[in-house]
């Protein structure tokens, strides 16, 4: 297992090195106010999960790593573009303990730098040397549109109290899971994997992504505060429509439901009191267990997709390790 | 000449038909709040200059019009995306006598719909059936990044009084000319034109674009109010760094320059008085004539590039007509 862990770390280091070199060279001669925020964004850090997935899939299917690096950079730059624009839309002042771009520079600069990043993702994609480049670009394009759809549904949900579990799962599939799945599949395509393998690793990514996002909902409410990076209960305070809240709304008894709705409609409240009250309703409706079961189900579905991939069993260890490390994170 | 005019109109009609069908079908099943603003934007009207340029170049080089239509739609959707985001950045409430997207819907919706449009442009590009598709996508991508750079320079210039003529010309090349040039070249590439023809029609577009933008500066100040769609002198009121103003700043005498600077720094003023005073300085510095000469020079350069294109002379008539119609517009 140690060798596998080392390989995963090596891929991550390789990616981080490439990314920081690229960030430095971006727009050497262009307008500073366009390119400096992009460099700032790309140097903010993060686990670089998506590009590592591209490199990993390329490696597992016997591809040439150089062919996958540009696709990996493309997906990371695209992901950071979505975070940048999401921060404007969510009015989020901080990102990874640093001021978000629209706070550090200006909203106009954040809009335009993000626009440039989404196009620069294509510049990197086009540098990818793969026989199936057009398939890669098409997959990326359809995925990117899905991510926009997911973000729109997420914003729509803010103003609704009647979001169903099904709608919520579709939203997180679009907003989170498809880009993880696309990353794996891009790596597979860059290595010219078979169509069925490319599809299986895509499904592995979808199910892992759903498990990952539900885990996020769970941790926000039930993580160990010492290990958790953010404040526990932030989603409850912000009335965020999470898997927990939506299930609680669906399952709450005649007596409980007005209580929950009441908390959602309060304009001023004591935060700790609200968190405790909503968590008590979660307890009564049993939504923590429902969430844990759903995470487990998606995780197991991911492992089944993994089993179906036609590569040596020992090669799959690294994907299992990656999946495990994603699910074990506390932040 | 009548036949040529009819052909140009026919291409425009064909394009408008396709675009309105596409607008109707966009996002039939996706989130309404994402796709409705896109449909609204695409139905706002406009001369559809860029996509007509794609279709025209394809036709002149003997291409299959069906191959060029998707590239034409891509460039129009991209152009409308830039207008949408520019309107947020410029805080412009109206576009073509209708509320701009961020006013009609919301700023968040305008940001996200624009993001989706820029990616949808690639969806259309990828549908283009051309042997040189990757060249077309690369050209489009590099052009799109240049357009972002142009917009950034334009915003940078708002806060500067020392913009040079050279810097200004580079800004309008990036913000306006390259997309016109790219449209022509995409059409040429879709018809598999020779590299030198593709380059010549690109240069035709660049020079026409520069002439077009300088004409815009001139009209804003000197158009016939009855024929001009907007209020005369709007650029002067807003201190917009135009070719006229930048030249006036460079050429104004020791005595005149403080007067001009003073008007630029006034926070409250009578609009007509400011327009009259700045125009008097333009008169003294002779910048109207300098602008007219520059327009003429770029227009003639465009015609020289046109001469060098290796197609029948009678086929060039339609490009000459297009160039003329662009320069004769009063709005």
TrEMBL record, chains A, B:
<dbReference type="InterPro" id="IPR008949">
    <property type="entry name" value="Isoprenoid_synthase_dom_sf"/>
</dbReference>
<dbReference type="GO" id="GO:0004659">
    <property type="term" value="F:prenyltransferase activity"/>
</dbReference>
<keyword id="KW-0460">Magnesium</keyword>
<keyword id="KW-0479">Metal-binding</keyword>
<dbReference type="Pfam" id="PF00348">
    <property type="entry name" value="polyprenyl_synt"/>
</dbReference>
<dbReference type="GO" id="GO:0008299">
    <property type="term" value="P:isoprenoid biosynthetic process"/>
</dbReference>
<comment type="similarity">
    <text>Belongs to the FPP/GGPP synthase family.</text>
</comment>
<protein>
    <submittedName>
        <fullName>Geranylgeranyl diphosphate synthase type II</fullName>
    </submittedName>
</protein>
<dbReference type="GO" id="GO:0046872">
    <property type="term" value="F:metal ion binding"/>
</dbReference>
<keyword id="KW-0808">Transferase</keyword>
<dbReference type="InterPro" id="IPR000092">
    <property type="entry name" value="Polyprenyl_synt"/>
</dbReference>
<dbReference type="InterPro" id="IPR033749">
    <property type="entry name" value="Polyprenyl_synt_CS"/>
</dbReference>
């Amino acid at each position: 297992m140690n060798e596998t862990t080392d390989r995963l770390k090596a891929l991550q280091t390789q990616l981080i090195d490439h990314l920081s070199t690229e960030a430095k060279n971006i727009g050497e001669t262009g307008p500073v106010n366009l390119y400096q925020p992009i460099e700032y964004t790309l140097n903010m850090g993060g686990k670089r999960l998506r590009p590592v997935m591209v490199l990993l899939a390329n490696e597992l299917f016997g591809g040439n790593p150089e062919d996958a690096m540009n696709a990996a950079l493309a997906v990371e730059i695209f992901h950071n573009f979505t975070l940048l624009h999401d921060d404007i839309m969510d009015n989020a002042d901080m990102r990874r303990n640093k001021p978000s771009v629209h706070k550090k520079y200006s909203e106009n600069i954040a809009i335009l730098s993000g626009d440039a990043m989404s196009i620069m993702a294509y510049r990197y994609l086009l540098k990818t040397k793969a026989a199936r480049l057009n398939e890669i670009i098409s997959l990326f394009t359809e995925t990117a549109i899905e991510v926009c759809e997911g973000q729109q549904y997420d914003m729509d949900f803010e103003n609704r109290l009647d979001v169903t579990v099904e709608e919520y799962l579709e939203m997180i599939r679009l907003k989170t899971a498809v880009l993880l799945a696309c990353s794996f599949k891009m790596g597979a395509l860059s290595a010219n994997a078979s169509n069925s393998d490319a599809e299986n690793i895509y499904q592995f990514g979808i199910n892992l992504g759903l498990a990952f996002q539900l885990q996020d909902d769970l941790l926000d409410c039930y993580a160990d505060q010492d290990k958790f990076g953010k404040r526990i209960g932030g989603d409850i305070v912000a009335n965020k429509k999470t898997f927990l809240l939506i299930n609680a709304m669906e399952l709450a008894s005649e007596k409980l439901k007005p209580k929950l709705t009441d908390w959602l409609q309060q304009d001023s409240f004591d935060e700790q009191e609200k968190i405790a009250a909503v968590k008590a309703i979660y307890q009564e409706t049993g939504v923590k267990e429902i969430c844990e079961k759903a995470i487990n189900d998606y995780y197991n579905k991911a492992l089944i997709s993994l089993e179906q991939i036609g590569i040596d069993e020992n090669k799959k260890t690294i994907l299992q390790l990656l999946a495990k490390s994603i699910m074990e994170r506390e932040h």
